[in-house]
Amino acid sequence: MRLTPLVLASILAAGTTPLLADNIPNPNPGQLAPAHSFTATTTGVVTGYFAGSEAGGNDMIELWDTTQNTFSGFLIPNHSSTVGVPTDFLSVNAGDNLVFIISNDSQGVLNSSVDNGGVPTAFSSDGYNHAYSTPYTGGLAGLPIGLTGTFVGMEDLSVTGLNPLTGSDLDYNDDTFVFTNIAPATATPEPSTFALLGTGLVGVAGALRRRFAR
Description:
Number of helices: 2
Largest sheet: 6 strands, antiparallel
Strand content: 25-35%
Radius of gyration: 20 Å
């Protein structure tokens, strides 16, 4: 959700300047980002560096360790946090499954990085994926030089329809962070991908049988 001139003017009038950074854009705005799973790289603390916000509403982020069923609590309000300042989110064990939850406090709704096919859950009002992620190797304004990790951009508006898209712009830039101690996100294969993989393995097996039959 982008800042409108009216919202920007009201923020400036209140004496609070929105802290924006050069976010890594979602390459397909207006479309659901691929569903990803996040895992802890090592046993220790997951630290998040606020990278910026282009939201008009008030958002906060929570990290949920679904393996241990522990929560960080909602942290780093998007309109009063400083870009580049680290915040410790949660202590985790290596391999723990992690989920990001965004609270749109302006609308009183929660959404998460889990894609439940549009079926609402306790932590997602619309059941769609609200996180876009990509490996981060540096280059964003305001973040520490040499910082590497996983960039996560969250979408704060709930989807009410996909064809056509309604309720959200799915630009995934409403609350953005770089996290350390999180393995680079890996896309969850669609069922068709599994089918193609199975077909490919069958083909490879057949080729090997023919080769050794000679």
